[in-house]
Amino acid sequence: MIALEKVLIVEDEVHARSGLTELIESWGYRAESAADGVEGLERAVQWGPSIVVTDLKMPRMDGMELLERIGCLPQRIAVVMLTAQGSIDSAVEAMRMGAYDYIPKPVDPVRLRTILQNASRQHELDEQAEVSPKEVRQSAGVGALVGSSPRMKEIFSLIERVAPSNVSVLVTGESGTGKELVARALHDLSGRRGKPFVAVNCAAIPETLIESEIFGHEKGAFTGALERRAGCFELAEEGTLLLDEIGEMPAATQAKLLRVLEDRKLRRLGSKMETPVDVRVVAATNKDPEQAVANGDLRGDLYYRLNVFNIQMPPLREHVEDVARIADKMIADMNERHGCTVSGMKDILLKRLEEYKWPGNVRELRNTIERAVILAGSGLLGVEHLPPQFGSPGFAPLVKKSGQYAAREIAAAIAEANSSGEVKRYIEDQNTVRVEVGTTVDEAERQLILKTLSSTHNNKTKAAEILGISSKTLQNKLKEYQNSASSATE
Which intervals hold domain Sigma-54 factor interaction (predicted)? Predict the structure, then answer.
């Protein structure tokens, strides 16, 4: 906490106002008070507090109007909204308008103190920052995100505005568009910078373990629970938690998550005690969230609680003017990672990259650039460093999904391309899979799995990793192929 941070309390109820003032002063802040929004605005202009704690409903000028007026002042002031339990929707709307956070009445002193500490830390970072918000926008990037197209500039501006608050954010967009990078940028530009950033993929955790993974468990909570374990919420304490593929979370876990978001307390599996948590939650999904709600995959109340702000990442094909800038950053990253000295791209290569539709989005572009950098080693990248058949009809890019390769999707792409009879060569990386016209998707998948297993010298763990499937799934596939072969010989 910064010494003598100024906090203004705006509350029309006399006892509540004096009680809050005394409490906040006892924590080492300089606190003053005002009886309503009109007086609060005057004090904000004259005194220049860094934080305003205001009631929502007041005579003359309510908290919403005060928030709007404060937002027009030249100095940045974090506004914390006090609200009755029945006015939570109004508080969420206030956060959409730029409030830093809200706290229900009766005020929980622990939560209020945490909010003030976070707001103070954000104020300190803002004062120490050498780059102004305008310069950040002009640098054509936020965090690891880069681009200069209108779409990306809008996203950078939104990230910059939302990051300092504690508001939940829902990031949507196709796979590979950079949703996790948005979450990291929100974290790095917030007062939680320097605290943990924890990302969990809800689709990658078995349904039987996801509740334990997120909320933690006590020793003996279930078979195999040999010791107490902190969940992702506790690991991200005072930091940011990214819940990726939120639509894949089981319904029961979604209900428990909603309660944690509302109460800021969680209960580990097997525990009778509730643990306070101070975590900013960012959720991400590659599905249409409203359709997911309609289908029953995502609880409506959880969606509305998470969707205070929505950042929608566009597919790369909709901002191809950013390909050059993104590729340049990737080349620099790959040079450092692989010890190469590639200096850039030839114009003809850039033209090919900008003309391609990028079904795998930025993730596919990264895979393509990484391959090219390794092949070239130095100098300029050219079209000769692209994957075979790049951009041609039926080209099936080997695109990572959730960090691994999606075997069935690749096999489906191969089978689809075969139907045209235009391309027979699809995946080449020291080994080649060739599939004839008329091959079924299951057979294409079988050939891909067996060829990959052969290329790893029958190392099932490595083959499963390359294919992006679990070892158990690979074992089941191999057993299925063996049973089919036995049946055929009988």
Answer: 145-374
